[in-house]
Amino acid sequence: MSTRFDTKIAVLLREDLETWQRLNVTAFLVSGLGTQLPEVIGEPYEDADGVPYLPMFRQPVLVFEGPKETLTAAHGKALSRALPRAVFTSDLFATGNDTDNRAAVRAVGTADLDLVGLAVYGPRNAVDKILKGARMHP
Predict the structure, then answer these.
(1) Rg, C-alpha atoms of the chain
(2) CA distance 3 to 113
(3) What predicted TM-score, i.e. pTM, was given to this entire model?
(4) What are phi and psi of 30, to 5 degrees?
(5) Strand order in 7-14's β-sheet?
(6) How many C-beta atoms surround the C-beta of residue 120 within 10 A?
(7) CA–CA separation, 125 vs 47, rounded Å?
(8) Is the Cβ–Cβ distance between 81 and 122 less than 8 Å?
(9) What angle do CA 84, 65, 87 make, to 5 degrees?
(10) Cα-based angle 61, 120, 84 (whole degrees, multiple of 5)
(11) Quick one: pLDDT band at residue 18, thresholds 50, 70, 90?
């Protein structure tokens, strides 16, 4: 049985990233959503032997890709709609910790961010409009 959610969790990746970068960027981006939006997190898991596991998102995370221009446009739309979002810039590949990551983003103006990834959460239709021009990640 498949559930249709009224909301969508989506990650948009720049299409020229290497495989390890795609995985790393996706993991970093979605971690931000769970910390600020408790409604996206389900209940904790437990196996048949009673071993507990951490809760995860309550709905699928859809991963898309597109060229730099699509990512820039999606970022602008996410900002204009004031939807919860997380960004990953190319500068973050050269940093090694959270403090340096935040400093790297803070050092660049919004319009000049070299985005390689964007995560967004919100009403299904709004997220679909933000992702216009992107394609599902293969």
Answers:
(1) 16
(2) 36
(3) 0.92
(4) -70, -20
(5) 85-89, 115-123, 7-14, 61-66, 135-136
(6) 25
(7) 36
(8) yes
(9) 35
(10) 130
(11) very high
pLDDT digit string, tens, across residues 86-136: 999 999 999 989 999 999 999 999 999 999 999 999 999 999 999 999 988
- pLDDT over threshold 70, residue 1: no
CB 86 within 8 A of CB 33: yes
Q: Which amino acid is at 54?
A: L
Per DSSP, 85 falls in state: E
Q: Which helix (H) or strand (E) holds 20?
A: helix 19-36
Q: How far apart are CA 126 and CA 93, in angstroms?
A: 30
Token digits for 71? 């990512």
Residue 27 has which token pair?
Answer: 């993991």
Closest CA to 74 of 23, 5, 8, 3: 8
Instruction: Supply the pLDDT for residue 2.
Output: 67
